Amino acid sequence: MPLPRYKRILLKLSGEVLAGGESFGIHAERVKELAVEVASVAATGVQIGLVVGGGNIFRGVAAAAQKMDRVTADHMGMLATVINSLALQDALEQIGVHTRVMSAIEMHQVAEPYIRRRAIRHLEKGRICIFAGGTSNPYFSTDTAATLRALEIRAEIIAKATRVDGVYDKDPLKFADAVMYREVSYLEVLSKALGVMDATSIAMCRDNKLPIIVFNLTTSGNIMRMTMGEPVGTLIQ
Hints:
The chain is α/β, with parallel strands linked by helices. The protein contains nine helices and eleven strands. The model has no long low-confidence stretch (mean pLDDT 92).
């Protein structure tokens, strides 16, 4: 079996991934399938950090949150990421994968506090680290949290899993003539507002020369293909 291209990755998942085909909530079978796929990559020796969004939980209260203070709503979103992280941890540990949830918001009864050196040590010991609670600060997205954690743990790449094959010049779910990029620069993503990640995240990656790969998670085996360096998705560098 060929060696993986990357030794340490940061995998960014949207919360909607855990909902399966539902509009919100957690779909147990989909979480289990995802856990099996992540576990197969970890078995090759790749060190994996995970950041998962909270959209599948937060969507259920989104209408009410529109009338809330932004800071309060953002804190609710961060707590939603903790719920998803615990669900993913449970699915991974049920198949024998050692996993740690590390939260930026301290809650000692359910997760470890995020400490950079401890996270790196967990990764070195072969444990999967799931980084929950965003950055603990309002006004920052989970994309920014993923970028920050990737830089802190010295990940070689951010792998952003989506529902489409890569980065397109326009929304492929709405426009049949959308064209996919195989490779694109940080500057193009920002200047063309391609909507891959928020501008703060892209700028942080650009300034620190951290590449991003955007790929389709709904295609089984794509996490492994991406890790092995096969041409899946779009590379931003």
